[in-house]
Amino acid sequence: MSQSRNQLGSTAKRVSDFAELRPVGTTRAPTMRVESLSQSKRGHQSGKPGARRARIRDLEPVALFFRHSGLIFRCVGIAGALSLLLAWLMPVNYTAKTAVIVGGGLGQVATISARGDAQNYLERTQELQARNVRLLAEINGDPELTFPAEFDQSKDKPTLAKILDGERMLFTSRRESLQENVDQLKAEAALYDERSTLLGKQIDLIGKQREIADKEVAETQALVDRKLAPIPRLREAQRTSALLASRNVEVEAELLKAKQSANDVRQRITTLKTKYRTEALDEQAKVHAEIREMSTKGNTSRSIAETSGNDSRADAGFIANQSDIITSDQLVRETVRRLGLQSDSSFLAKADESMPIKTEEDRLNAVTAVVQENLAAGRIGPGSRIDIRYTWSKPTKAIEIANTLAAVYVENQAKAEYLPSVSILRAASMPLKPNIAPPIIVIAGLLAGLIFGYALALILDR
After folding, report:
1. Residue 379 near residue 323 (C-beta atoms within 8 A)
2. Which pTM value belongs to this model?
């Protein structure tokens, strides 16, 4: 019995010396593995931890790539193709930047009488508003000029009272001049109408005379046919009838001419009234623009007067105000005019998408709106530097617009005496880098595809 136990022990020891037996043959043959009893026992005892370690080894990046390389390559290829298409379709934009600086900060501005400037702008605004009331009355054809209640409440002020009296006098003189011209033309038209009436009566008289002459011709013809009247008498009757017919034609021509002259005079009256109203409309548009300008300057003066020149908040408010002026319709429209952008096909193509263009003014307004969409201006740091940034697909055009707008701003501010000096600190110049380069888009797409492919592979291995 002990001998058989010894034989079993030696057999188990020999089996334990072989960790694994693999048959030699083709690679597709199934793998045969023989474990020792001790290893089998250890694997049985360990249980799930050994399986977990094997699964972790299977999810290593290299092993995962070799198991799902086809899927990963397909994801990378699809993402790369989409990124190439996006890079080809996406417009490449360039941002030009021009820096301007307000020399001396606001310390100089605080020493100037900004309150007096604000009062001057207020008086100018009141004058413009009074003129606008007068122009509105001319446009509507009102017989008298009546100012709103707020003007009547302030009429005790000498300056405002003088403005109102001047507008009343101008309204009366312009209306009287128009009415005088209209009355003269109406009198001329009445003369032509009277002449037309007389010519019409003359035509009626000639018509009756022609009836008598035609009747006489018929009767004479009958007598001649019966040999009761001489032929010369017939010829005389026919000649009289022909003269009356000729005279009738001449009078009818004079009548048409008189009526045409009367219509021309009435057309001149309409043209005169239309011109009177059109001039008022044009002047009203200029008045509205100047009112907006006075309002902006008045707000700036009041802001300067109410804050200290050493207050950083005043600096920030002032620079913010200047940034709004840079991007305002007035300066951008002047920039468009100088560069002739209203005739640039690339800007017109963008403008056609937003609004219909019928007149030259519509073209200018549409292109101005397009330029403003891609324009930005703001303060940089705590100082008084303002960066003007313009983004466009053509770098040379972006540089040209940014630099021209800065020049227009400097010229505009030079006219305002209450502001410190403004100058261009650094102009935009080539070369410029695109905001988003196409290679970056492609690389980002490839990385996204690789990450997405690995994510799918991890999901499939679960």
Report:
1. yes
2. 0.40
Closest CA to 255 of 208, 186, 193: 193
Q: Are 175 and 138 in contact (CB under 8 A)?
A: yes
Alpha helices in 307-344 (DSSP H): 312-326, 329-339
Tokens of 77: 């290829």
Q: Strand, helix or coil at 387?
A: strand
Pair of tokens at residue 442: 């492609």
Cα gap 351→355, rounded to integer Å: 6
- 455, 138 contact by CB (below 8 A): no
Coil vs helix vs strand at 50: helix
Residue type, 198: L
Question: 358-401, pLDDT tens digit by residue?
Answer: 788 888 888 898 899 889 988 877 667 889 999 888 888 889 99
The answer to whether 112 touches 301, Cβ cutoff 8 Å, is no
Residue 242 carries which side chain, given as an amino acid letter? Answer: A
Phi, psi for residue 382 in degrees, rounded to 5:
-80, -5
- Treating both helix axes as pointing N-terminal to C-terminal, what angle do 69-89 and 438-460 enclose, rounded to 10 degrees? 150
Q: How far is CA 290 from CA 128, 165, 295, in A?
A: 8, 21, 8
Report d(CA 28, CA 263) in Å as an integer.
Answer: 110
Buried b (16+ CB within 10 A) or exposed e, 196-211: beebeebbeebeebbe
Main-chain phi, psi angles of 96, to 5 degrees: -95, 145
